[in-house]
């Protein structure tokens, strides 16, 4: 390797670096703010030398003439004389960063700085530290206590399913009614914990501060949640049609009545909007009754002759209302069933037959020209007859059929809409009503009412006049409810304004702004005061002075500077001045008024200094061709070897 570095020790005398100084001087005018050192612009070009020897392939030295001159390494070159970095004096120490007493007893720090006046060139010493830091207020017993900062969180927002689904299917992004797993979010912010001297009303909500002031883990801002999916209402089967009854047995009206059937709710729907359908259907009929005879029990069969055979059984008959309640017998207008009924007592060795089963469900809920309702009941042979015993009835006698639901298929029912939102009840008075009348507890909620629309519907037709449906079965259209407490929106006070630049404004830069914000910690609900529209504010900073404008001014490149002739000829013998060298140019700093300025100003405001020197080449006018000698040297394995 070729080494043009400056040798050390005793080699300095043998291999000295001699300087050929070329100074790039420029005329300068004193600037009214700067004391300018003209030497800061000077570049000094020197030269370096080294020894070159010719070696054979076995490593031994050979005469220089045996090595080709075309490929010989250079024994000298131009170089830039080193200049060390220069800096300004230290600035005063900054205020101590620790102004209060913290729990961790860590010290504070203060700083001082200095600026670079001259950049190092030519391998000169780099700048030492431009900033120094030292501890201060290490004990701090006399300092006030530091403020404490903690994380705060707003209430969790509504559970949303769309953010999870939209990642998989973009078509679901705008769907508002979704269910299943979702996420809910909240905002987190940092506040200063108020001390004991702050009034109570100011402790309730603290203004947010920079998040950098809060230590510890940030509270979770997202958590999983779930929205229950709506379930369909599960209903039982319809009961059998009941007897023809008056709409209001307390006020019987003519011979018009209704038959009714009902069904029960087995499982409620998931939401009120998906409520269960109607549970009661009515059918007009004639000759209604409000009370009827009912057999409540039947005694054992008592044979009239002997121990078996035909007999009678006593039965208990009572008068009941349509709701099944027992009432005085005079309210039943029809003749009561007989107190005794014929029966058959099983004889020894005879056929034993079970009692009749209950009547099956009617095959049709009503009758038409093409369909008629029928139902059946059966009985079972329990024991076959013995020798000489009574024979069993025929198979046809073990089953009975009868007509049912022979009324026409004209069905009506009441249809109720979902309840409207709860509104304040004007009759409750100006001060409202305590909720204790509804749930036995005191609360800020007030009494209200809910309404809904109830319509008489004809099956498979639509709305009809209300008198076609029994008024006694009409659902309520008004019900009491509780108005939940009004919840006003709560927001934090505005944070402090962010800092504006404190020095100056670069040329052509946009006007800086500062901002502040506040956070919603409680959303309004149930008609409470709405949240303010403005949660973020921004304003322009106060007018700042324009930063000083400095720029680098470059001058023409000087001619290529080679190693001095005396040095070059003393090493290689007489020859023309050509080959590698260095060329330099002047670089100066000027202000906005084009007046010369200190180099430190440009280093601070104008960026990196432009290149002040570069390699150059001075072409040789003649060239010695030694191609044949090169071929001979290659055959003998001779090559150049350079040493510093």
Automatic annotation (TrEMBL):
All copies of the Spondin-like TSP1 domain together span 85-137, 351-409, 489-545
InterPro entries named among the record's database cross-references:
Spondin/Thrombospondin_T1, TSP1_rpt, TSP1_rpt_sf, TSP1_spondin_dom
Q: Please name one Pfam family that this protein belongs to.
A: TSP1_spondin
Keyword Magnesium included in the entry's annotation: no
Q: Which UniProt keywords apply?
A: Disulfide bond, Glycoprotein, Signal
**Superkingdom of origin:** Eukaryota
Q: What is this protein called?
A: Spondin-like TSP1 domain-containing protein
The organism encoding this protein is: Alosa alosa (allis shad)
